Amino acid sequence: MAVALDVIGGIHRTRESLDAALAAQTRALAIRREALGADHPAVGVSANNLGLLEQQRGNYDAALPLLEEAVAVAEHALGPDDLEVGTALNNLGRLQHVRGRYAEARALLTRALAIREAKLGPSDLDVAVTLQNLGLLDLLEGDRLAARELLQRVLKIRERKLDESHPEVVAILDSLGTLNYRIGSYAEAQALHERALAIQQRMLPAGHPDIASSLRNLALVSAARGEREQALAQASEAAAMAEKALGPSHPDLAPLLNTLGMLQRRSDPAAAVATLERALAISARARGRKHPATATSLLRLGEAHLARGARTEAEASLTEALAIRESLGRDTPEVAEVLVALGELELARERPEAAAPLLERAVQIRSKGGIARHQLAEARFRLARALATSDPPRSRDLAEQAAATLREEGSAFAEELAAVLAWLQR
């Protein structure tokens, strides 16, 4: 009976019938615990399945003890180096990543990788899964070059062993596209995301949340390339599609609302604030107030408040975002993003002496590898404005460096270049 219920639950999960899957897999676990005892390997399998389902439903707190149980049962029944232990460790590590527990995630994933490579060799598909999880962790922790190395290795494994339309090929195309976007390689990012989207549109039902995610990724690239109207249209379509597929409060909706709000900010700051307040509420409720996803919502909300001239509200949101991101590492690109926004806030308050140390830190962080060049130019120009009175020679030098970079970056940054040149000629 338990085996049949697990199969039924898996079918429902594949079909996105998550409530029916939950009922079947909850019952399967209960039957196996009663019939076989808490330490039987089959109990671990059921706990793993149910934990993954709860994670898919966005119930991370419910998923955690189930996936921890799966690890414990596998270790007790099979030994610490068994392949089933590697699988359970990988799944638990991915959950801790999503929960924002990066140190725990890295330890679990590193152990999972060691088991899988030892048992399966360096080019196995299961090894690629753990490599991808570690690469995404590197990306979130700010080591973009290390992330690219791992994710390129994953793509090579999957392209050799899987059909182009396989979901795992699509997943790595999406991850590499995001990485190239963050590095500033926008042509490569667009090509990867368009390839992923084309496969999804061919293989998935219309309106699937994965299609919405790819549209959102393309919206970010379009915005970075200066195609703002197209970006806003893509982000709006993505958010509406995801909400219809997932419901109005699913945690996976929040990133799409963050992107939509960020793009609304330029033309309609009030609409941006409403969108981002909703994203913040979803993230805080599902993942907690100190989660990295919550920090992103706070950052975008702070930027929108600043665009409206609501400086007190902007300061509150940005300060909270900075505290969350600094708790994960003080010198990451994600921290620099908040520092730039806080520096702009202080410039708007005509407090250059308060802006300068924030922007000095941002320039230092963005001068490292793996950062889009226009983002360094942005930080340099804001620092130039902060130093205009206290250090005019350095101020001018920073602005000229920013202008040179923006000129090299091309027409997508013509508006930003014009602003720097106008400031230099004031």
TrEMBL record:
Pfam family, one: TPR_12
InterPro entries found in the cross-reference section: TPR-like_helical_dom_sf, TPR_rpt
Species of origin: Nannocystis pusilla
Superkingdom of origin: Bacteria
UniProt keyword annotation of Repeat present: yes
Protein name stated in the entry: Tetratricopeptide repeat protein
SUPFAM superfamilies (alphabetical): TPR-like
Keywords associated with the record: Repeat, TPR repeat
